[in-house]
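Workshop exercise sheet. Pairs work together: one partner reads the sequence aloud, the other fills in the structure field after running the prediction. Swap roles for the next sheet.
Pair: D.N. / O.F.
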Amino acid sequence: MFGTHELGRRPGALLKVSRTVEAPADLGTDVLGVPEGAPMEVSLRLESVMDGVLVTGTVRTPLAGECVRCLEPLRRECEADFQELYSYPDADAGSRSAEPDDDAGEETLFLEGELFDLEPVLRDAVVLSLPLQPVCREDCPGLCPECGVRLETDPDHRHDDAVDIRWAALRELSGTLGSAGADAEEEKPPRAGGDEPQEK
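Structure field:
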């Protein structure tokens, strides 16, 4: 929680705040995120406006995860900007009755006395700044699709032309039938020159 006591309610008043906070749990995606308890450096600019406090800031924090191509551990730094308006609780009723709510889908954040909770804003800012497919480097060759070896450590790695296991049984059957047909041709006695007599 951050306080606004020193800011006051006079429109136009400014206050700058810098603080290091611990990262909450589950901040990130399945492949990249902020480790729980990691330091998050937050720099804020608080501005008093008619309806509340406009918070503009930047968060910097370390990231940990894995490369989506080679699955090696990944370490990065994240820097994300954000801006959010925290409304005064007593300004909510008047603003809703005077104007239609054009942003009904957006959740309004409120000050709790002289305090505001920055966690949901930080969470959104960090997650939206993360890459969808993090890689250790842009030209990462990834893993061999057949055996899973890391191609960067073995760039000459290759396999002989392998038969798809779905077709291997059919190929064996084809070979068996082919050899059986050839044997039958060899064992078949030659036909006589004339027509064979029909049995009555």
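Discussion prompt: The CA atoms of residues 141 and 151 lie 6 Å apart. What would you look at next?
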